[in-house]
Amino acid sequence: MFIEQAYSKKFDIIKYLPIPIIFMLLMLLNYVAVVALNLDVDKLIQDEITRKGTNRVFFETMLPLAIFLIMLLVWVKFVNKQSIRSLTTAREKVDWKRIFFSFGLWSAVTILLTVVAYYAEPANYEINFKPVPFAILAAIAVVLVPMQTSFEEYLFRGYLMQGIGIATRSKLIPLITTSVMFGVMHIANPEIEKLGYILLLYYIGTGFFLGIMTLMDDGMELALGFHAANNLVTALLITSDWTALQTDSVLKDYSIPDAGFDILLPVFIVYPILLFIFSKKYKWSGWREKLTGKLILKDTNNETGYSHD
């Protein structure tokens, strides 16, 4: 049982607050600055790329989140006195096969959908491949993108899911809370400026997808693999002038984005199909219990119990 693992007699919700508060405040201040100063985020990114180059801007974007990952894991280990394994999974050890399966599955789907889109409307795309810049991008991305995505997963699907769950004795409350927070975290992205706040439904829907996957599988392995594949393959494969991460990727997309299609396809079609595949492969059962159950936490010997309505 994934959430309960963070509980002990010395559990203190106050210890959970500093890193999430600092991170969310930074995100909020970034958004307030964009709105209050009426900043053109697209232009700012393009100016930075002109001055520094695409790969340097990409590196500087990824690095702070990689540092946050290290800070979070150190905090969990030495302040909360919790093992990284118990933050990651309810299994006796981290299941790397699950991570690689999820990573491989979503990488294959992403590449397939991109190839189909390219051949369906080739006029919307340009071959952007340059060997040297791409090699530098690949070296940066392979190291920093999994750290960036792992930070987001450990923060939302691990740290906050467990902390909020224990504080509220619920699984549904942390699922809803972390999914909404995950969506709101992206509010300052240039994609939101381009497509409107309706795109937050995509990010929140993705948060629910990753949260459901974590609770049903009693671990973050599938979410870690999916998120890493989503950002890494996208960074290497395709870019555009209006996204948060602009890279020296293989393709450049000049198409006009469609918020309705971009939201409906993954959230209401692709994600349910993926959940079905994972549920069959890993024999998930007890959906109501695992997603809406209440926690009963015992105070002795770090034992935990579980019940549901």
TrEMBL record:
The keyword Hydrolase applies. GO terms for molecular function: endopeptidase activity; metallopeptidase activity. InterPro entries: Rce1/LyrA-like_dom (IPR003675). The keyword Cytoplasm does not apply. Residues 136-233 form the CAAX prenyl protease 2/Lysostaphin resistance protein A-like domain. The chain crosses the membrane at residues 16-37, 57-78, 99-120, 132-151, 172-189, 195-215, 222-239, 259-278. GO terms for biological process: CAAX-box protein maturation; proteolysis. It holds the Pfam family Rce1-like. It comes from the Bacteria. Keywords: Hydrolase, Membrane, Metalloprotease, Protease, Transmembrane, Transmembrane helix. This is CPBP family intramembrane metalloprotease. It comes from Flavobacterium cerinum. The lineage of its organism: Bacteria, Pseudomonadati, Bacteroidota, Flavobacteriia, Flavobacteriales.
